[in-house]
Amino acid sequence: MRKWLLAAAAAAIFMAPGTGMAQSPIVIKFSHVVANDTPKGKGAIKFKELAEKYTNGKVKVEVYPNSSLYKDKEEIEALQLGSVQMLAPSTAKFAPLGAKEFEALDLPNLFASEEAYTKAMKGEVGKWLFKKLEPKGISGLAFWDNGFHMVSSNRPLLNPSDFQGLKIRISGSKIADRYFRDVGAIPQILAFSEVYQALQTGVVDGCENTASNYLTQKFHEVQKHITVSYHAHLQYAVIVNTKFWNGLPADIRTQLDKAMDEATDYTNSIAVKENEDALAEIKKSGKTTLHYLTDDQKKAWQTAMAPTYQWAKGRVGTEVLDLLSKELNIKMN
Ligand code: LMR
Which of 90, 142, 223, 225 is 20 to 30 A from 253 via CA? Predict the structure, then answer.
């Protein structure tokens, strides 16, 4: 009797109503650390909608935003273990995977614009970087954009010397560690979900991030001053567990690739506007003071942070730097 009940329960779950056909959707857990109302959050939801539509419901994408499933480092481990199938971490978090080369993308003042970023990542360097993930059991599907970093603390940060002695939260990149040290700050790695409290309680004095992340995590409510410095870029790599991905039926994978391509175009097309709107919202809130750098101040930051480029050669290697300089048509000394 008990056996019969179990079988009936299983049938109720796996039979498509009215068809008598067995149906158990393939589940893709997509974990990320930011809010739904951000470029990455919206991109993940767009991918879910398109993937479920193109596969006629054969694939179900479960999106877990705001570190609700895993925090920064844990989510990468979970992907390798197969507990989650898809992530979009910032490329600043790839060093624990042994893929330090991704940190080259965090170099200060590297990308002149969002267009320059998007174009570069579609080129040779993007493919080259994804190759670095292959031996780790991870496949890279796309690069997503979240615009340029601002920086904040409870005092105005206008000149490089204003950073002296400030503890600044960074997300993991040694390149960011380096450029903040160049201006005299003391960088500290913290998981994204811990930043608000760390700022509120003074565990750290400041942080860097994009406007959409400041707004949705309320960082601006616990920082008296934000400088719209756009000194570095925040980008994501959408990655999957290779064994899972390659094990999918070929037709399903084709539909998912199409969904990912479209979700990528969508995400990269909204990033600028999302961040502009978030910045306007932050301004309207009156909870912090926004500062904009003069040309001289911008130059002073660039000069102060320039030694990071030399240092980066030892950290990320010259190959990725050469590829970037070719793709971006810039000189890197
Ligand atoms: C951070 O930790 O600051 C970022 O990586 C968060 C994100 O994913 O945008």
Answer: 90
Contact 64/31 with Cβ under 8 angstroms?
Answer: yes
Which atom of ligand 1 sits closest to the CA of residue 90? 5
What are the structural domains, with CATH classification, of the chain? 2-324 (3.40.190.170)
pLDDT in tens, 126-182: 999 999 999 999 999 999 999 999 999 999 999 999 999 999 999 999 999 999 999
- Contact of 312 with 94, CB cutoff 8 Å: no
Q: What is the pLDDT of residue 332?
A: 81
Cα distances (Å, whole numbers) of residue 187 to 158, 177, 180, 233? 18, 6, 6, 17
Task: Kindly report the backbone phi and psi dihedral angles of residue 310, in degrees, each rounded to the nearest multiple of 5, phi listed first.
Answer: -65, -45
Who lines ligand 1 at CB under 6 A? 33-34, 90, 146, 171, 192, 209, 213, 234
| Ligand 1 center to 22 CA (angstroms) | 40
What's the angle, vertex CA 19, arms to CA 14 and CA 20, rounded to 5? Answer: 55
CA nearest ligand 1 atom 5, residue: 90
251-to-165, 211, 238 alpha-carbon distances in Å: 56, 39, 20
The alpha carbon of 166 and the centre of ligand 1 are apart by a number of angstroms equal to 20
Count CA within 13 A, CB hemisphere, residue 275. Answer: 22
- Asked if residues 75 and 84 have their Cβ atoms less than 8 Å apart, the reply is yes
What is the distance in A from the centroid of ligand 1 to the CA of 2?
Answer: 49
Q: Which helix (H) or strand (E) holds 231?
A: none
Distance 323 CA to ligand 1 centre (A): 25
The residue assigned the tokens 């910045």 is: 279
